[in-house]
Design brief:
The chain has 367 residues and is of the alpha/beta class. It has helices at 11-21, 36-46, 62-72, 85-97, 111-143, 147-151, 181-192, 209-221, 274-281, 301-311, 327-334, 344-354; strands at residues 2-7, 27-33, 50-54, 77-82, 101-105, 172-177, 199-203, 224-227, 232-234, 238-241, 248-254, 257-262, 288-292, 314-318, 340-342. It has twelve helices and 15 strands. The longest helix is centred in the middle third of the chain and has 33 residues, at 111-143.
C-alpha cells in the first residue's frame, strides 16, 4: 500500500487530490497538511511513501518544507505548481532542494484539468513509491551536497567504455537530461565554468518552466544561460536551455557558424527531445560531445548512437549511482556508447578539459 501525505493550503485542492486517488486500491491518503510546518511534522510522524507539496502555503512555504523534510526524513516529494512564471521559478528551486518531480496545474484548477492530471499523478505516485528506499540517500546528498554526491559510485567492473582518441577541442556540447536535472545540472555547470564552445541542453520540461530554469542557472553559476529561441546563433560560452515543450535542431549554414532552429518532432515521445538534438548535431563539421544525465526512459541513447557512428564522438554518461533516476544514462551505458561514466561534478571538470581552445604555437625565427 502506498502511503500518501497531501500538503496544500487549499481545502478544495486537498479534496481534489484525495478524489484523484481514492479509487486506486493501492494508494491510501494517510494525512493532510494545510501549512508547510504541519507537513514537516506529519512527515516525521507518519513516514509516508510519497508527499504531494503545494508551492505556496502560509506559515512555511513548500520550499522550506521540502528542505526540512529532505534533511530530516527524506521522502519522495512531488510538487504541484501553477503555470505561472513565479511558481515555475519556485518549483525549480524545490527540485534543486530534493523534490523528485512536479505536476503543472492551470492557475484556474477546473474540472477538466483535474481529470487530465489525475492519471499522471497516480502514475508518478506508484513510480516514486517503488523508488523510495533507493533514492532516500541520493536525495539527502543532493539536497545537502557532500563528497558522496560529488564523487558518485565506484565504476562497475563490467562496464565497457569506448576509447576515443584525443583530438581537436569540441565545437559543441549537447546534453539530454530529465527527472533530477534541476538538482544535478547546477553541479555540472559550476565545476565546468565557461566553455570555449556553446552547449545546448534538452531538459525535459513543459512550457513556462524553462525560462525560469535558465534564469535560475544564470544566477547560480554566473554563466551565460539562456532559453532557446528560433534561429538563435550559438556562440562560445553560451549554455542554451531548450524551450519547454519544443524540440530544436542544430544547423550549420556555413562552416563555423552554428544555428539553432525550433522544429518540434511529432513522433518524439517527450520534449525537449535529446535524440532529435543529438542527431542534428551529428551533421555539424566540428567535434561534438554528448552528455546523457539523470532521467526516466532512454532518450538520448539513439541520438548518441548516431553521433558515435558518424563522428566517433565522446559520449559522457552520468554515473547511475549518482542519479535520482538512472534510466537515460544506463540505456546509453548498456548500449556500449559511453566513453566515460562520471558523477555530476566530474562531468563538469571533464567538459572543461575537452572544450579548451587550442591555438597553434608560434615559433620565433632565429636571427
Amino acid at each position: 500500500m502506498i502511503r500518501l501525505l497531501i500538503s496544500d493550503d487549499s481545502a478544495f485542492m486537498r479534496i481534489a487530490i484525495r478524489k484523484m486517488v481514492e479509487s486506486e486500491p493501492d494508494i491510501e491518503v494517510v494525512g493532510e497538511a494545510k501549512t508547510g510546518q504541519m507537513c514537516v511534522e506529519l512527515a516525521r510522524e507518519l513516514k509516508p511513501d510519497v508527499i504531494t507539496m503545494d508551492v505556496e502555503m502560509p506559515v512555511m512555504d513548500g520550499l522550506e518544507a521540502t528542505r526540512q523534510i529532505m534533511a530530516a526524513t527524506p521522502c519522495p516529494i512531488i510538487m504541484l505548481s501553477s503555470l505561472t512564471e513565479r511558481n515555475s521559478v519556485t518549483t525549480i528551486r524545490a527540485l534543486e532542494l530534493g523534490a523528485v518531480d512536479f505536476i503543472a496545474k492551470k492557475s484556474s484548477f477546473v474540472q477538466l484539468d483535474i481529470v487530465q492530471i489525475g492519471a499522471d499523478l497516480v502514475e508518478k505516485l506508484r513510480y516514486w513509491a517503488k523508488k523510495k528506499t533507493r533514492i532516500s540517500t541520493t536525495l539527502r546528498n543532493i539536497s545537502s551536497p557532500g563528497p558522496a554526491a560529488l564523487a558518485g559510485g565506484a565504476p562497475a567492473a563490467d562496464r565497457q567504455l569506448r576509447n576515443v582518441p584525443n583530438g581537436p577541442s569540441a565545437g559543441l556540447v549537447v546534453m539530454g537530461i530529465s527527472t533530477g536535472g534541476p538538482a544535478t545540472l547546477p553541479m555540472v555547470l559550476k565545476t565546468m565554468g565557461r566553455l570555449s564552445c556553446p552547449m545546448v541542453v534538452a531538459q525535459h520540461m513543459p512550457p513556462m518552466f524553462t525560462s525560469g530554469f535558465a534564469s535560475h542557472l544564470r544566477s547560480e553559476t554566473g554563466l551565460d544561460v539562456l532559453e532557446s529561441a528560433d534561429q538563435m546563433e550559438l556562440k562560445p560560452g553560451m549554455v542554451v536551455i531548450v524551450k519547454g515543450g519544443t524540440d530544436v535542431v542544430v544547423r550549420e549554414p556555413f562552416p563555423g557558424k552554428l544555428m539553432l532552429y525550433q522544429k518540434t518532432d511529432p513522433n518524439a515521445g517527450i520534449h525537449p527531445n535529446a535524440d532529435v538534438l543529438f542527431r542534428s548535431a551529428a551533421a555539424a563539421s566540428c567535434p561534438v560531445i554528448a552528455v546523457v544525465m539523470t532521467g526516466m526512459g532512454s532518450d538520448g541513447m539513439l541520438g548518441a548512437k548516431d553521433l558515435v557512428a558518424r563522428k566517433n564522438a565522446h559520449v559522457i554518461a552520468q554515473d547511475p549511482e549518482s542519479c535520482i533516476v538512472d534510466g537515460m544514462p544506463s540505456s546509453t551505458i548498456n548500449a556500449g556508447l559511453a566513453s566515460a561514466v562520471l558523477a555530476p561534478a566530474e562531468i563538469g571538470t571533464r567538459l572543461s578539459r575537452l572544450c579548451v581552445s587550442r591555438t597553434t604555437p608560434s615559433f620565433k625565427t632565429a636571427v
